[in-house]
Sequence to fold (469 residues):
Amino acid sequence: MTKTIIKLTVRDVRFPTSLEQHGSDAMHTDPDYSVAYVVIETDQGMQGYGLTFTVGRGTEIVVCAVEALSALVVGKSLEEIVSDFRGFYRLLTSDGQMRWIGPEKGVIQLATAAVLNAVWDLWARSEGKPLWKLLVEMDPRKLISCIDFRYITDALTEEEALDILVKAQTGKQQRVDQMLKEGYPAYTTSCAWLGYSDQLLKQVSELTPLKTLVNKGVKSVIFGPIVLACNDYMKRMLCTDALNDGWTKFKVKVGADLKDDIRRCSLIRQMIGPHNTLMIDANQRWDVGEAITWVTRLAEYKPLWIEEPTSPDDILGHAAISKALAPLGIGVATGEQCHNRVMFKQFLQASALQFVQIDSCRLGSVNENLAVLLMAHKFKVPVCPHAGGVGLCELVQHLILFDYISVSASLDNRMCEFVDHLHQHFRSPVVIQNAHYMPPKDPVYSCEMFESSVQTHQYPQGQVWKKLQ
Fold:
């Protein structure tokens, strides 16, 4: 039966994570993890849920963009959309007037991602399959028809993409079985955010048992000069707990102070040992020359990559950094703020990155991420998704499972970020076992939040925000 979309609603949902500096880094010092949360309803009572991630102020602008796109969605049937998903993607991204405020970038693309995420969730629910399984079991030609190849055929043609998918059919079931048994390898960022306050840390040193803070959700700290002993002790405890839980891959936020970065990287390398994996992330803090100099000073701690060393738009700058750091065995990773498939194409063509970091909400949802996964495979660059932020872990796990099972068939130098925040607000939260993402089993795209959480955290009228006013 036809399922016609009769209503689209979007809400501004924010979590005051800045109060404890969760998610803070060298550029984003006070993030409030937030989403523009979309619900689409059909005439048969079925709903689809989608979101796009933000860090607080500005979410209201994304909400306005979603509302502007809603007229292109309401009245369409699910069958109509998925029978020509490429055409529907272009409908949203190529509107003759709204395209001017993109095209396919910034706020309008974030809004597009939220809408399309809801459509993919609706499709998964309609088929009774988790999103990753819907993709894995889809006929390769049908899957290719969901991708807009416009602007990337000089790097990847439809025929090449189809060939990749067809070749990956060999051994696919074995990889499905492997993922169901073992899960997909993850790394943690929760041991090294950059912004917990000196006041909080002073309370730790004077009054509060460290284990109590961890149990309350305080997962990571920055080491300020006033409370180094306390901070170092807490960092040791956090790393020890993570190691005991099976984590072997750790990412550290850097970029604010070189001396502090040297000390923290030294401490963490000492804690995790010489054989576990360390990555560093500057969140766009440096100029090109500064990035090369800074990372060279940190090279002795053997980071696998430097993430977002400079402007996310500077493809040639990333290429220069990649070339300079190659003799040190340090790669460049980027992508969480890469606007679209065209930029990823150029990053790959310019050998400007050694690790592709897709994001479930920065690009145009699943459709555009499929294009990037296929291009990355052609250029032989591993994909290690970004997933720091509310809902991103829930979404991107589906994409990385598809990449391994149906595209790359490789786990070499591949892992997916995990951040242990706010999963309790989702109806189908991620499941981590022995530092691996376990494949979701619910027939959804894992976007749905509990309505009580949405109402409590809706900005600005939710109870949480009324108390903070």
User: Anything to note?
Assistant: The chain is about 45% helix and 15% strand.
